[in-house]
Write a structure and sequence with these properties.
Distance between the termini: 103 Å
Largest sheet: 5 strands, antiparallel
Strand order of the largest sheet: 2-3-1-5-4
Shape: elongated
Number of strands: 5
């Protein structure tokens, strides 16, 4: 059969490759005459890989028949535990002195001037929710949650309710209110305070008459202590 010696060689190579013999030895003379399946001894090698080409790797002996051979580059990969640290200046966020040193420039001694303020947009006023502290208190300050109405009332209405006579009579003096939901005082009030403030009453400066719209101007107020603010740590820090 044509090509029989070639198939025999492949079969012998798969079984170990030790008993494979070249076609030139089987032909006896190595001439081009004879059966079409025989090859010259000096003819180019076939595409069948030699054992030396497939002896390495975990799948030894099958490299030529199993696609690409497994990579042998595992030993050349970098081991981060034993390798030196890779330093790449492009990945650093340096200050001006460090940047100049890395790029071999003279370190500047004068910083560039600040650019002029932007002329875009328009100026606005910004209010801060802060209070001036003239003296660190020795006693603790108590923080309270304040809920007026459903908690989503407008700031103007909440300030008006907080300044009402009913609130002043219930709390007394010495309170700080942030205009929203928090208040502070040196007084400790363990009980929860619940009030109804009618801004249309004569006590609050109203005429006492119901509104034409029929909508009530009564507002529910709930004040509850939630936290104790101590200044011992801050005082010790300021004293050094």
């Amino acid at each position: 059969m044509v090509g029989a010696p070639h198939k025999k060689r492949v079969s012998e190579y798969q079984n170990g490759g030790s008993n494979a013999s070249s076609p030139s030895t089987q032909s006896g003379s190595g001439s081009s005459s004879g059966s079409p399946g025989r090859r010259r001894a000096d003819a180019p090698a076939s595409n069948v890989p030699s054992p030396a080409d497939s002896s390495s790797g975990p799948r030894s002996g099958l490299g030529g028949y199993d696609g690409n051979r497994d990579s042998d580059s595992h030993s050349s990969q970098r081991n981060p535990a034993t390798s030196r640290i890779i330093v790449d200046p492009k990945n650093f966020d340096l200050g001006m002195a460090g940047w100049s040193t890395v790029h071999a420039y003279a370190v500047p001694t004068v910083m560039p001037p600040r650019p002029a303020p932007s002329t875009l947009g328009q100026p606005i006023k910004v209010g801060l929710n802060s209070f001036r502290v003239n003296k660190i208190p020795k006693n603790p300050v108590y923080q309270y949650d304040v809920i007026i109405g459903n908690g989503t009332e407008k700031r103007g209405l909440m300030n008006k309710v907080w300044q009402s006579k009913a609130i002043r009579a219930a709390l007394g003096t010495g309170w700080i209110y942030d205009g929203n939901k928090l208040a502070w005082s040196l007084k400790s009030m363990d009980r929860e305070i619940r009030l109804e403030v009618d801004l249309d009453s004569t006590d609050e400066g109203g005429d006492g008459k119901p509104r034409k719209s029929g909508k009530s101007n009564n507002h529910r107020v709930v004040i509850k202590r939630t936290n104790t603010v101590g200044f011992a740590v801050l005082d010790a820090y300021l004293e050094g």
